[in-house]
Amino acid sequence: MVRSAARRYSAPALEKGLDAVELLSGAREPMTLSAIAQALDRSRSEMFRVLRVLEARGYIERARQTDRYRLSNKLFLTGLRRPPVAGLLDVAYPEMRALAAGIRQSCHVSVLSGERMVTVARVEGPGEVSFLLRIGFGVPVALSASGRVVLAFMSGDDRAATLADLRRAGAVLPRALAARLALIRRRGYERAPSPVFAGVTDVSFPLHDADGAVSACLAAPVLHRRGGRDPAGALLPAVRLAAERISARLAAARGEA
């Protein structure tokens, strides 16, 4: 955790709690009280009180009734209640349900969150088999089809600043990324194999707000059947139309506010 000596105000108890939350958010496995205290250079006794309060408020939880702590979903769910995100979901879900029914595949909406594109809404397809991401699933921005769409439609200055932040954070940026982003801007979408799952092609379109900015993406992860043709191309018009309808409704909602 970074502690700045130049800060004007200090709230030690709050800082301990935030340090613990930030530590657990990046932990691959649940951590014991001792491990947390050691990582934060704090005593076991002071972190014991902090962790008990965080657990009582639901921000952290014990893993399978052990003495190891992990972050709960409360912070993420709280973030979904923010007006911009909540408004996006209110608008997107009806169009997503219609899209999933039409293409018989699942679809989802993801937003930029730090260094990752994170799934905030999903609708399961009615077909025999569909590919469904859990809410909160994240993929590094530059490796994600939706992440590249967001990068492509940023202003030049915003894109340069975002890529610089990603590099400082140690993110892996694909070669020829600039050329790929230029292609996405020209055709208006991204279509590419999933960087995580074999046999899945991600089709992603931007969702524009009333000002024309892209803050989220609508995507359909399309499954490939053995011996069959890639169905992603046939689904492009339907996904494009759904994204355009969501964007239009977002703009209309902003105008009515």
Largest sheet: 6 strands, antiparallel
The count of helical stretches stands at: 9
Could you say which overall geometry the principal axes of the C-alpha atoms support? globular
Q: Which quaternary structure do these chains form?
A: single chain
Total strands: the figure is 9
Which percent range describes the beta-strand content?
15-25%
CATH architecture of the largest domain: 2-Layer Sandwich
Rounded mean pLDDT score: 84
CATH topology of the largest domain: Beta-Lactamase
Please indicate the count of domains: 2
Rg from Cα = 21 Å
Low-pLDDT ranges: 1-6
CATH class of the largest domain: Alpha Beta
Structural class: alpha+beta
What is the first-to-last residue Cα distance?
A: 39 Å
Question: Would you mind describing this structure in some detail?
Answer:
This protein has 257 residues and is of the alpha+beta class. The protein folds into 2 domains: 12-72, Winged helix-like DNA-binding domain superfamily/Winged helix DNA-binding domain (Arc Repressor Mutant, subunit A, Orthogonal Bundle); 79-256, GAF domain (Beta-Lactamase, 2-Layer Sandwich). Helices cover 46% and strands 19% of the residues. α6 (145-152) packs across α8 (177-187). The radius of gyration is 21 Å and the shape is globular. The chain starts with 11 loop residues before the first helix and ends with a helix.
What topology emerges from the helices and strands here?
Elements: H1 12-25, E1 31-32, H2 33-39, H3 44-56, E2 60-62, E3 68-71, H4 74-80, H5 83-103, E4 107-113, E5 116-123, E6 138-140, H6 145-152, H7 156-168, H8 177-187, E7 190-193, E8 200-208, E9 214-223, H9 232-256
Antiparallel strand pairs: 1-3, 2-3, 4-5, 4-9, 5-6, 7-8, 8-9
Helix pairs in contact: 1-3, 2-3, 5-9, 6-8
